[in-house]
Amino acid sequence: MIKVSRGCLGSEELVEVQSAFEYGYFGLASKVDEFEEALRDYLEASHVIATNTGTTALHLALDALGVGAGDEVIVPSLTFVASFQAISAAGAKPVSCEVLPDTLLMDMKDVENRLTAKTKAVMPVHYAGNPCDMNTLCKLKDAHGFHIVEDAAHAFGSTYNGNKIGGFGDIACFSFDSIKNITCGEGGAIVCNDESLDRLLRTKRLLGMEREAQTSESWKERGWMYDVVSQGFRYHMSNINAAIGLAQLRKADRFIARRREICKTYDEAFQGTSGIKRLSINYSVVAPHIYVIRVLEGRRDALSQFLKNKDIETGVAYIPNHFHSFYREEGLVLPETEKAFEEILSLPLHFEISDEDLQCVIDSVSEFMAN
Questions:
Q1: What is the spatial distance between Cα 138 and Cα 170, in angstroms, rounded to a whole number?
Q2: Which candidate, 70, 35, 25, 85, places its Cα nearest to that of 321?
Q3: Is the distance from CB of 305 to CB of 299 less than 8 angstroms?
Q4: Opening angle at CA 49, ends 286 and 227, nearest 5
Q5: CA nearest to 99, candidates 291, 320, 314, 294
Q6: Do residues 153 and 175 touch, judged by C-beta distance below 8 A?
Q7: Distance between CA atoms of 333 and 98, rounded to whole angstroms?
Q8: DSSP label of 96
Q9: Which of 29, 151, 301, 346 suits 130 as a labelling partner, its CA being 20 to 30 A distant?
């Protein structure tokens, strides 16, 4: 089967993991520090806090910003449920908003219409790695005083106005799960530019404890005492996951370059294909996580089945969250989101797709659309 997505690990990751094994402590230790420093350099960011998942990164960020019961967080309904779960886990209410049809990014006009006195934060989702209109969102923030928490799970390596996502703004959260642009096996990170927020996030990441992480250099100086100063969580990244991430980060530019090449090949192949609409994405600045087409005239499911019969896996990203029982709101209708859900289909995109397999996908889609 030609997989729709997959992680790409090799001998370099095994070398790093072997080093973590030999150290003998597998929790929050020196590899995590090294990974955070490497991420800071790559993103040109001030502070990076590594977490065990992208979901916990979002929850931790919201909690540290004081988002809680009675607050509202505006978020596009067309996102993975992790975005919504992080908001509800913080005790706040996710407020579903619309997306733009050409990009499937957050519709800023709809965001503005949904702002209330209860809006504590807005969570833009950089869908498929394509950055949202952050200039407009920042202007809204200045006018209304909410926090911005970027869900950048798809966007590691993407840039906006010449800066890498995560290298500017209030706070951004990444995911490094097994199918993202780089993987730690499982993991995430919070990026911010505020030193006091960085300290709070680090404290909350490890059960509200104030104590330095154990490293090979510091253990002799550190005693056994610690203090618990706030509500916290067990959200830290493990040394083993950080070791994988270190090796992956050294490959990031190569991974991204191949992903861009695949997406451009798809775009060229499907340009002018009747019944297919491509998303509007500038791959010179976007590090794509998924490649999504809109299949028109109600043919999406038939195309998906046709490709499955040819051993080509596809996906649908995502079921709108206002369709889920837990987040359903009586009377809420999001026409653009709901129409998109009927049409979107993710085609195979990962570093290890061969040119032959890529051409097989293109030929198969073209064959179906021609009939």
A1: 10
A2: 85
A3: no
A4: 165
A5: 320
A6: yes
A7: 9
A8: E
A9: 301
DSSP character string of 261-312: HHHHHHHHHHTT-TTEEE----TTT---S-EEEEE-TT-HHHHHHHHHHTTB
d(C-alpha 48, C-alpha 46), whole Å:
7
Extract the tokens encoding 330: 């009586």
Kindly list the distances between the CA atom of residue 72 and the CA atoms of 253, 318, 328, in Å, as whole numbers in the listed order: 37, 22, 15
The catalytic residue positions are: 180
Q: Which two tokens stand for residue 196?
A: 């006091």
For residues 79 and 213, give the distance between their C-alpha atoms in angstroms, rounded to a whole number: 34
**Reported confidence tier of residue 159, pLDDT bands at 50, 70, 90:** very high
Residues with Cβ within 8 Å of 205's Cβ and at least 6 positions away in sequence, in order, are 49, 51, 60, 232, 233, 235, 236
| Residue 235 to residue 5: CA distance in whole angstroms | 26
Report d(CA 58, CA 85) in Å as an integer: 9
Per-residue DSSP letter, 30: H
Of 110, 73, 106, 109, which is closest to residue 89 (Cα–Cα)? Answer: 73
User: What's residue 235's pLDDT?
Assistant: 98
203-225: pLDDT as tens digits: 999 999 987 554 555 556 666 78
Pairing relation of β-strands 276-278 and 291-295? antiparallel
Contact 134, 155 (CB under 8 A): no
DSSP annotation of 347:
E
For 240-261, write each residue's pLDDT tens digit.
Answer: 999 999 999 999 999 999 999 9
